[in-house]
Amino acid sequence: MMMIAPYGTYMHGGALLVNAKSYHASGMENLKFYGWGPEDTERYERWTNLGYRIGYAKGCLFHLSHPRDLNGTHNSSQQKMYSHYLKDTAILSSKEDIRNQMNL
């Protein structure tokens, strides 16, 4: 049985290896996210806009199915909208905008 990847060719997340100095300089994680959301895509877009080089390992990334706990979902539709707002803001932000937003 073949599965179609819902995230397209390049998944943003799942496994992450970073240079510690660059990670700190980028603002690390966006702590405005709560529960499950597009934080991996937000991080990818933010780091791309900051000019960091991002590479991908060759091969497949498999996600093991697991039940979601209380922190694995949105508490409300407003929270879900806010998570997507944060992601979209990173996509549309310039390097200068990101530095101001993240206090870098």
Automatic annotation (TrEMBL):
Keyword 4Fe-4S: no
Residue ranges of domain Galactosyltransferase C-terminal in the record: 12-59
One of the record's GO molecular function terms: transferase activity
Keywords, in A-Z order: Transferase
InterPro entries: Galactosyl_T_C, Nucleotide-diphossugar_trans
Annotated protein name in UniProt: Galactosyltransferase C-terminal domain-containing protein
